[in-house]
Amino acid sequence: MAAIAGQTALSLEEQSFADRTIAAHSGKPGALLGILESLQDHHPHKYLSSEILEYVAERTDIPLAQIFSVVTFYALFNLEPQGDHSICICRGTACHTRGSRNLLQRLRLELGLPEESEEGADKLCLTTPDRRYSLRTVACFGQCALAPVVEVDHEIYGHMNERTLHRELEHLESGRKKA
Amino acid sequence: MPEKISIRIDGEYVAAQEGQTILEVARASGKYIPTLCWLESITPVGACRLCIVEVSGVNRLLPACTTPVQDGMSVTTHSEKLAAYRRIALEFLFTERNHQCAVCVSNNHCELQAMAQRLGVNSVRYAYTFPKLPVDVSHERFVLDHNRCILCTRCVRVCAEVEGAHVWDLSSRGIRSMVICDMSKPWGESRNCTNCGKCVQVCPTGALAEKGFAVEEMVKRDAKVTRLASRRGGHQ
Questions:
Q1: B162: closest CA among B43, B66, B24?
Q2: How far is A52 from chain B (nearest CA, A)?
Q3: Cβ atoms of B158 and B42 closer than 8 Å
Q4: Is the ipTM of this complex over 0.85?
Q5: Which parts of chain B have pLDDT scores under 50?
Q6: Are strands B74-76 and B4-9 parallel, antiparallel or unpaired?
Q7: How crowded is residue B154: how many other Cβ atoms within 10 Å of its Cβ?
Q8: Which helix (H) or strand (E) element contains residue B194?
Q9: CATH homologous superfamily of A85-178
């Protein structure tokens, strides 16, 4: 126990939460997904640090390479700290034809995020340097009738345009000031 | 005792046992089915899609390495259609990475190259993607060149099943898939790697190679690894 604690930079609270989560899932097939999901949710910045992944590998005897493979396979896992607010723009066909690219560009400009990377953008996940906003894209929300669709802090907004999007952003800003 | 069944491969009746795959039965009866990712005594994954066969009554092509035989099955291993699909699968492998044979350590000892010659792929009809990929030379004895990798996952499976270290795995998915070491660390920094070199010996291309070899000099010896695996009972 002491050896493990010495190796990782995790706080005792994080370690005990990880231990409890692993114990709750032990013996079930496919436990890794559940473990990683609750650990990510537990973190204030909603991400999985390399320390926590190493800790899980050590505790569950699942090879580190396999854990990393799972984490990079599923878009829902984050390896980078996420912003306080998440804005998710649908880049599906219906939303694309209704101008979701413009919404994406507008948000990029407004949040000061870099242009598309060379790798192409079927899965985009950018966080502002001040960690206030995370901008993501998704292939389809399944709400094509409401196109273009934007998800702000896990709430779906349909028929968005640049003006309404800007208003939502101002709402978030003002909510932040009050708090 | 597994039940004895009988299947037809290219019209010939062949005796088989329940639980065997089409590929195993075909090889036991001397029939050749092209493969790249398959390795004797290692768990098959059906990644390369070269061993696809036609099974009468089934509308799609099935990978022979992962499809179990059924009594009365009738399998076609060679046809115009299969040859065309196998060539397409190979062409996509060539376009996906930078396979420059002339400067590869495995030139003339490469399974991908040999397979292309065998299946008559002498030109590629699709646009090359020319991805920018790194070469990992951090290991003391071995090199990992992502430009030559065909993602067959032989190294992943051999490391996990025979050596038991599970240093390798695939990250991401689709066109961004890459073979990675532990948490996408340089190979030389891996604490789990035992430096056994099994992954290098089973790699069908020049993606994994020993250091100190020039072009055309790297000859792989996968039989040593598969013999070891089969003595341990092979995959379950």
A1: B43
A2: 12
A3: yes
A4: yes
A5: none
A6: parallel
A7: 30
A8: none
A9: Glutaredoxin (3.40.30.10)
Q: Is A13 on the interface with B (CB under 8 A)?
A: no
Put simply, the chain A residues between 105 and 134 with a CB less than 8 A from any chain B CB are 119
Please report the sign of the dihedral spanned by the C-alpha atoms of residue A151, residue A153, residue A157, residue A163.
negative
* Position A1 pLDDT exceeds 90: no
Q: Which residues of A touch B165 (CB under 8 A)?
A: 63
Is A68 in Cβ contact with B169 (below 8 Å)?
A: yes
Q: What is the pLDDT of residues B51-103, one digit of tens each?
A: 999 999 999 999 999 999 999 999 999 999 999 999 999 999 999 999 999 99
Residue B106 CA, chain-centre distance (Å), reads 15
* Most A-contacting residue of B161, B169, B177, B181 (CB-CB within 10 A), to test interface: B169
Q: Please check the confidence at residue A9 and state whether its pLDDT lies above 80.
A: no
Is B185 in a helix, a strand, or coil? coil
CB B27 within 8 A of CB B16: no
Structure tokens, B234: 């092979």
Find residues 147-176 of chain B whose CB sits inside 8 Å of chain A. Answer: 156, 160, 165-173, 176
Query: Could you give the angle at the alpha carbon of B92 between the alpha carbons of A72 and B38, nearest 5°?
Result: 75
- Cα–Cα distance, B126 to B109 (Å, whole number): 25
Q: What is the pLDDT of residue A129?
A: 86
Query: Residue B185: closest CA among chain A residues belongs to which residue?
Result: A65
Choose among B169, B172, B176: nearest Cβ to A65: B169
Q: What are phi and psi of A86, to 5 degrees?
A: -115, 135
**A69 touches B: beta carbon within 8 Å:** yes
Backbone angles phi, psi at B211, to 5 degrees: -75, 155
What domains can you pick out in chain B, each with its CATH number? 4-78 (3.10.20.740), 102-231 (3.30.70.20)
Cβ contact A69:B180 at 8 Å: yes
Q: Which among B173, B176, B180 has CB closest to A65?
A: B180
Of B171, B173, B192, the CB nearest to A68: B171
CB contact under 8 A, B168 and A64: no
- Residue extents of the structural domains in chain A: 10-73, 85-178
All residues of chain A having their beta carbon less than 8 Å from the beta carbon of residue B184 are 68
Q: What is the pLDDT of residues A113-149, one digit of tens each?
A: 877 655 554 567 888 888 889 998 888 889 899 989 9
